[in-house]
Design brief:
alpha+beta; 10 helices; OB fold (Dihydrolipoamide Acetyltransferase, E2P); 2 domains; Rossmann fold; 6-stranded mixed beta sheet
Length: 370
């Protein structure tokens, strides 16, 4: 086996995986370049965890192959697999800790195996960043689930491996700590010492990490590219649904002489492609809806169904003549149920999809307009 030094390329070639009668993946093709950060974004059951386990060679594909460090790990012998896996840092949900070892030794274990220098300093640095320095002498059983997850994350980061695989590493943590650690991880990954594949159900995490994003849904790779590009130009309704938080608002519409017409008769003046069909779907991100009107805005009146405060934002679910809409408002808004509310939308901020799925037009980004 010829080992390639530094971060590896990860390649999926025609990857299909069937468990029983169900396909978990179908014909996946993906190439992650050296030192790249890739977010695997998709809901529960989209195939993210299975894909990470296949990269490790823990699950053999029904067809196709996964190559890391220039090797097909699933076809490698035991000694080759062991040598390759020493160069991989991994953290799965509920990452197993060594129950008989205190937190310090759990974090230090990969460093000791590598006979690294300054182990004590490195362990305490990571423990401080993850706010677990007060638990270093405790056994894992004495910690909460979220605290154990932080220990597992510290151990994975301590390895500083050329290939890092993460399966929703922040899912069990409280909101404030999750926000802090997202920033920390982004800075750590930006150094480029590792190729990183990071599975998450939260689009906001993928956006913060930057890099590239692969959107998975029911085992299919729907879109892959630079994260900002995938977010701002989702290739289809399925991508827009999977890569939106809160969920993108989707409204039925029809092509008209001046643009399109919504189901309540509201007309929007929009420039559509010549090939646009009659049946359309309008996509509105929650962040595009505002409480204050601007010139040329469309007014959407309704009543509050629910208001959820999340950090410094409020998600407001509003029942309108077009159906339920969710608005992502900046700041804390304490709104009572059934309160009348008016939302405003700049028509230039809508997505238009063919009712069959593909994207037809997307809002022009400010950087593109300048």
């Amino acid at each position: 086996m010829t080992a390639t030094l530094g971060p590896p390329v990860v390649e999926l070639h025609g990857l299909s995986t069937r468990i029983g009668e169900r396909y978990v993946h179908r014909d996946l093709e993906l190439r992650v370049e050296r030192g790249q950060i890739v977010g695997l974004v998709g809901g529960s059951g989209s195939g993210k965890t299975t894909l990470l386990r296949q990269i490790l060679g823990l699950i053999r594909p029904t067809a196709g192959a996964v190559r890391i460090f220039g090797q097909d790990l699933g076809a490698a012998g035991r000694l080759e697999q062991a040598a390759l896996l020493r160069r991989v840092g991994m953290l799965f949900q509920g990452g197993a800790l060594f129950s008989a070892l205190p937190v310090f030794d759990n974090i230090a274990s990969p460093l000791k195996l590598a006979r690294a220098a300054h182990i004590d300093e490195r362990v305490r640095e990571l423990a401080s960043k993850l706010h677990i320095e007060m638990f270093l002498d405790r056994l894992p059983a004495a910690l909460s689930g979220g605290q154990q997850q932080r220990v597992a994350l510290a151990r994975a980061l301590a390895k500083n491996a050329p290939l890092m695989l993460f399966d929703e590493p922040l899912v069990n943590l409280d909101y404030k700590l999750r926000e802090e650690l997202r920033d920390e991880l982004t800075q750590l990954f930006a150094v480029g010492n590792s190729t990183v594949v990071y599975a998450t159900t939260e689009p906001s995490e993928a956006l913060l990490l930057g890099g590239h994003t692969a959107v998975l849904d029911r085992g299919e790779l729907l879109q892959y590219g630079p994260t900002a590009e995938v977010f701002h130009r989702p290739a289809s309704i399925r991508v827009a649904r999977a890569f939106s938080d809160p969920p993108i608002n989707l409204l039925q519409a029809e092509r008209s002489t001046s643009g399109l017409c919504l189901c309540d008769g509201t007309a929007l003046v929009l420039e559509l492609p010549r090939h646009a069909p009659k049946a359309l779907v309008l996509g509105i991100r929650g962040s595009a809806l505002r409480e204050r009107a601007r010139s040329g805005d469309l007014e959407l009146a309704g009543k509050v169904d629910l208001a959820e405060i999340s950090g410094s934002q409020t998600f407001v679910y509003v029942q309108t003549a077009l159906g339920e809409l969710v608005a992502q408002l900046t700041g804390v808004h304490e709104l009572e149920l059934a309160t009348p509310i008016k939302l405003y939308l700049d028509p230039s901020q809508v997505y238009v999809f063919d009712a069959a799925g593909p994207l037809l037009t997307a809002p022009q980004r400010h950087s593109e307009a300048s």
